[in-house]
Specification:
Length: 275
Amino acid sequence: MEFSPNIASLIYGSDPPSLGDVSEDYIEGSKLHRRLSLIEVPGVHLLENAPWLVEATSSPRRSLDNRPHMSLPTPRVDESAMTLSTLFATRRSPEAFAFGRFTTQDLANWCWIAAGQTATVGGIYEGRTYPSGGALFPCDLFLALDAGPDWDAGTYLYQSSTHELVLMGREPITSVAETTPQAELFEYSAVVWIIVASLWRNRFKYGQRALRFTMIEAGHMAQNICLGVRTSGHEARCVGGYYDDELADLLHFDSLHEVPIYMIVSGIPATTSLT
């Protein structure tokens, strides 16, 4: 029998994990047990007996009527442009981007593929292009754009229910790039996508397990972005390394209850890697 090498010293150094190891404690603390569900996921049972709470949690839309809104055209995705198998087989993460223009229609298509509303489920819940635990949608999609033919430079929130962009700040892509250790990657990029988690949206229902669902949801959305931009000849590179508090400050979040958890950079690829 072969054994994998003992790499504990590489993972933990000379100090093995104590009883207070955060990662191990979270895995244990977010487990679901058959006989403890009333305690572990109290909101599941609360929703069964509180119609007002069902209505209150059915729409994750932010109230931002006082900010400038940019309506997007109806998405028109050419289904014959690229088959699903081709999208999967040929996806690559660019090491750099080249200058290239894109249209408002492209932007509308990408946003809808990423997080667009597709239906109303059960007469009250929003259905989107990706699954969400309990249809609570704790993740919001933000975009950083440089000035274009129909929009100003800044950070925008995509509102799926109305298919529009809401201007949240005037920070260009370079400002977002500076919150990462690899700012050169963002040069000539078309869009920087930032997934922000509102951790309170699903925690009332799922307790400690909510964070698992939130992270999974962010992955669903990121995959949609990576594949969706390819319908217009663009590519995407996922970025997990950024200075958390600096990015949160840029987007005006507290970095505790509302947290940037994933970033994707997309544009015309200059070169590709095997990632």
